[in-house]
Write a structure and sequence with these properties.
This protein is mainly alpha-helical and 384 residues long. It contains twelve helices and no strands.
Length: 384
């Protein structure tokens, strides 16, 4: 079992120049041949949703490894939190302009530092510092972020404040769960935190599209755009839950395994429900079987590192030759990326772990876009 000492001085969050953004936003006119899922407005929504959603999961992962005293893993995911902030800056500067984007970024980065301070204080049971950090989140970060979003994106001040407050409260629950080792509650709260983050992102993206319609043409909330956004959200969650499962299995942290497996099962049901109308029962059944088998195989691979099991993961990720269904996604690239994360976890390759985990989530969301294209092709009437 991995262990270590979490030293507050060693875990400061640093956004370094080495972190770079991989985000680009299209502001071209939407194609007249699609249903709006690829319009600049829809793409902005997806980008913002994924960044806000990633933020919730990275804080959750930070909380789990901090509470477990896993110092090197903490550093690795602190790097992902920094990269998230860099990409957040890129998106908002492109969306609302340099000045407004920088104001949002500065507030967001301040919040990240307060979150890290709260987490370290909570883990080390320094109640005075924990209270001070939480006060800073609620009295400094929330109003600063709300003001920046309100002035640059056009979201109403009261709504922006309410959503930022909700974000802080949701993230606090997750961090407190981790410190208390309340893993079943943590997974429930983490799922809720991720959903709340995406709702916040949707509200912000909608206002930006409304304020800059020439820059982001198209409908952010068309049936196809909403389908794309939701499937991206669910597959991002699936990716991060899978690597939480393998991290627990690789580290023999048995208390974490069952709650994560339960969260994965619940998210699989949510994926099925979203895809049901587009692809029908046969496709959804095939996908549901895939999630169940892959979760089991990945947990086994995380424990053993057996290459034969790893190959089974990849074999199962490819759709069967005859699935008796109109569509099944090819998730080979996505699960190849997950296996790389598991190898990092098993080999304690913490320098690359956080970045590889993030890359795996990106591959899952790329698969979500491919699923959306298939849905538009096969069931356009249901997404219009």
């Amino acid at each position: 079992m991995r262990s270590g000492t979490l030293a507050a001085g060693a875990c400061a969050l640093m956004i370094a120049g080495a972190c770079h953004s991989s985000v680009s936003l299209s502001t071209a006119s939407p194609s007249p041949t699609d249903l709006g899922q690829d319009s600049p407005a829809a793409s902005l929504r997806v980008h913002v949703d994924l960044l806000f959603g990633e933020h919730a999961f990275v804080l959750g992962k930070l909380a789990v490894v901090a509470a477990g005293g896993r110092k090197d893993e903490f550093h690795s995911y602190a790097g992902v939190l920094a990269a998230n902030a860099v990409d957040m800056a890129t998106v908002f500067k492109l969306a609302v302009g340099e000045t407004g984007g920088q104001q949002i970024t500065d507030a967001w980065t301040e919040g990240d530092n307060f979150y890290v301070a709260y987490l370290i204080a909570a883990v080390t049971q320094d109640h005075a510092k924990a209270d001070a950090a939480m006060t800073s989140l609620t009295s400094s970060y929330v109003p600063r972020l709300a003001a920046a979003i309100s002035s640059s994106a056009g979201l109403g001040s009261d709504q922006a404040t309410q959503l930022a407050d909700r974000q802080v409260a949701a993230n606090k629950l997750v961090m407190d769960d981790a410190v208390a080792a309340a893993y079943p509650k943590l997974l429930t709260d983490l799922t809720a935190s991720h959903a709340a983050a995406v709702s916040f992102a949707d509200a912000v993206a909608a206002q930006i599209v409304g304020r800059f319609p020439d820059r982001f043409p198209g409908a952010w909330n068309s049936g196809a755009a909403t389908f794309r956004s939701t499937v991206n959200e669910l597959l991002q969650r699936q990716a991060y839950l899978l690597t939480m499962l393998t991290d627990a299995a690789a580290g023999a942290v048995q208390a974490e395994v069952a709650p994560v497996a339960g969260a994965l099962a619940g998210n699989s049901v949510a994926i099925d429900a979203r895809l049901q109308a587009a692809f029908g029962d046969a496709s959804v059944k095939a996908l549901d079987t895939l999630w169940e088998q892959e979760s089991q195989l990945l947990a086994e691979y995380a424990k053993s590192g057996d290459p034969a099991i790893g190959q089974k993961v990849l074999n199962r990720a490819a759709p069967p030759v005859d699935i008796g269904a109109p569509y099944a996604p090819d998730l080979t690239t996505a699960f190849t990326a997950i296996l790389k994360v598991v190898d990092d976890q098993r080999g304690t390759a913490f320098d690359t772990l956080g970045g590889d985990d993030r890359a795996a989530a990106v591959e899952f969301t790329a698969a979500a876009d491919e699923i959306t294209e298939a849905a538009v092709r096969l069931a356009p009437a249901k997404l219009s």
